[in-house]
Write a structure and sequence with these properties.
The chain is mainly alpha-helical. Helices cover about 65% and strands about 0% of the residues. The chain is rod-shaped and about 65 Å long. It starts with 7 loop residues before the first helix and ends in a 15-residue tail after the last helix.
């Protein structure tokens, strides 16, 4: 009897890695989107650090 050494196992492992990478990418993109939304909301409220004289204030 011959042993099957097809590509089923590596293909399955590859698909799992791709699924995990896609999930992580989606989480990262959602977090970035939330941060951008919060930054826009803060600018609209006038409460961003630059306007409030925060540590990143470049005016001397």
């Amino acid at each position: 009897m011959t042993e099957k050494t097809g590509k089923a196992a590596p293909k399955g492992a590859r698909e799992e890695r791709l699924k995990q990478a896609l999930r992580e990418n989606l989480k990262r993109r959602k977090a970035q989107s939330r941060e951008r939304s919060q930054a826009v909301a803060a600018e609209e409220d006038g409460s961003d650090e630059a306007a409030a004289g925060g540590p990143n204030d470049s005016k001397h």
